[in-house]
Recover the amino acids of this structure.
């Protein structure tokens, strides 16, 4: 990756059940590259009240350094700011002195740049912008893709348009890092209605390539983050960005039409981040939503039997299925997309029950 110019590594103490920083630290060490050859971004992921006290935040930071095998962090982020209301933000970063301490970390060089990742509450974002003169944000990580650009509320009522966030940051000269360029992978999956808008302009390009080109075509974007599961993804992404072809006006218009086509399917806005996992009752929550979204975006709506077959493939027994959700709602507060998870799972359960009844009645 580094040989091909991919030098930005984004992690968090919360990722991959706490294993991400340690794995990245080992991999970077083993790469043989010098520390200044790559950029490490990690986060103050103090999500639970037990992690709010400043001492706990400090412990988290020291552990990050140890796991990452480094003595400084290039880009340090307040993690998932705005996921929760202003009170939560204040408890996590203001009342406990954590933000002031981060400023001290920057002064001493233990972090090079300070930013925040944003989800949701407009008041928190406005506060961060109003206080830019005081805190001097070095960058900001936002959810941006060609659907969220102008239609974030259609995906999720709580979200703000990426265009608004990007413009607010750009006018303050705060560089933008992008998360969810593929909207949790949804924009990389083949979708006939989306392809109809884009493919005629470039028959060879994958839908993922279109989504990345959209993000990279905005001049204040400093990096585009994408979870990549297979080596092929890495190779394809390297190709897309080597060099990146800027979108033309006509292509931006086609992407806007593609966004509208995508929204026509009314899918669940799950980005497969896994923050809601593990479910104490054993459900694979993102797998349920991926299954539901796959069915919704099929060109020819499948029969009851086909849907049930897909369900059996996606969540085979004896795995815990929608019917096992107790509605305990322990997952809900963790979801940065504010999905009412138990309600959506209950809908899937009802839908599947209805299909089973239909099959039995045949
Ligand atoms: S509400 Fe359902 S899906 Fe969420 S944690 Fe509880 S049992 Fe699991
Ligand atoms: S339901 Fe929410 S928290 Fe869970 S994987 Fe999807 S987006 Fe992430």
């Amino acid at each position: 990756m580094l040989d091909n110019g991919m030098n930005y590594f984004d992690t968090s103490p919360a990722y991959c059940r706490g294993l991400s920083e340690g794995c990245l630290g080992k991999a970077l060490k083993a790469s043989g590259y010098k520390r200044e050859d790559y950029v490490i971004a990690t986060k103050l992921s103090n999500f639970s009240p037990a992690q709010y006290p400043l001492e706990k935040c400090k412990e988290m930071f020291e552990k990050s350094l140890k796991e990452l095998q480094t003595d400084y962090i290039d880009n340090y982020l307040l993690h998932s700011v705005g996921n929760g209301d202003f009170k939560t933000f204040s408890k996590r970063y203001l009342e406990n002195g954590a933000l002031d301490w981060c400023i001290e970390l920057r002064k001493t060089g233990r972090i090079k740049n300070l930013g925040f990742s944003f989800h949701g509450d407009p008041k928190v974002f406005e506060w961060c912008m109003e206080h830019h003169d005081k805190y001097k944000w070095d960058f900001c990580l936002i959810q941006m893709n060609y659907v969220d650009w102008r239609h974030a509320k259609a995906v999720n009522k709580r979200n703000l348009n990426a265009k608004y966030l990007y413009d607010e940051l750009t006018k303050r000269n705060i560089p933008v890092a992008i998360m969810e360029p593929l909207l949790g992978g949804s924009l990389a999956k083949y979708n006939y209605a989306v392809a109809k808008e884009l493919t005629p302009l470039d028959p060879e390009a994958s839908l993922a390539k279109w989504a990345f080109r959209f993000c990279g075509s905005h001049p204040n974007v400093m990096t585009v983050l994408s979870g990549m599961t297979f080596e092929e993804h890495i190779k394809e992404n390297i190709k897309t960005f080597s060099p990146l072809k800027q979108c033309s006006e006509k292509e931006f218009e086609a992407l806007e039409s593609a966004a509208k086509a995508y929204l026509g399917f009314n899918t669940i806005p799950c980005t497969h981040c896994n923050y809601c996992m593990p479910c104490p009752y054993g459900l694979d929550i993102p797998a349920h939503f991926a299954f539901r979204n796959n069915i919704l975006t099929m060109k020819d709506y499948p029969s009851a039997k086909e849907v049930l077959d897909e369900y059996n493939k996606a969540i085979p027994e004896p795995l815990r299925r929608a019917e096992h959700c107790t509605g305990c709602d322990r997952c809900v507060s963790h979801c940065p997309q504010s999905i009412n998870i138990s309600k959506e799972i209950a809908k899937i359960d009802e839908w599947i029950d209805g299909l089973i009844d239909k099959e039995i009645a045949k």
